[in-house]
Amino acid sequence: MAHRKFNLVDPNKEKMLYIYSDAELLVNSMNDWTMNWLPNGWITTSVPPVKNADLLKLLLQSWGNKRFEHVNAQTEELNWKACWNQLAGYPARNAALMAFHNHP
C-alpha cells in the first residue's frame, strides 16, 4: 500500500522510499535476507523454500530505492514513527478481518 501512494508522489522513482513496520520479519527479509534468497532460488539456508516468496518478490519489484525500518509497536514512547505505525495498523487489521470473514 505504501508503495502505491508513493508512486503518486514520485512517479519517476527518484526518491528513497522509507517503509516503517513493526513486523521485524518483514524488515529483516527485505533488508537482509532477500539478497541471499534471490541467487539461491528462494531457498533458505536450512533448505526449505522461503515462505511468502511471491509477496516478497512483488515488494522487491515494486520500487527501486526503498528501505524498511523496524518500529517498536509495543512502546509507550510517543514518537512519530510509533504513532503512524499505530494508525496504519487499524486499516490493516480491518482489511485482514474482512478478508478472513469473506473467505469461502
TrEMBL record:
Q: What is this protein called?
A: RNase H type-1 domain-containing protein
Lineage of producing organism: Eukaryota, Sar, Stramenopiles, Oomycota, Peronosporomycetes
GO terms assigned for molecular function: nucleic acid binding; RNA-DNA hybrid ribonuclease activity
Q: A Pfam family in this protein? A: RNase_H
**RNase H type-1 domain location, by residue?**
1-97
From which source organism is this entry?
A: Phytophthora nicotianae
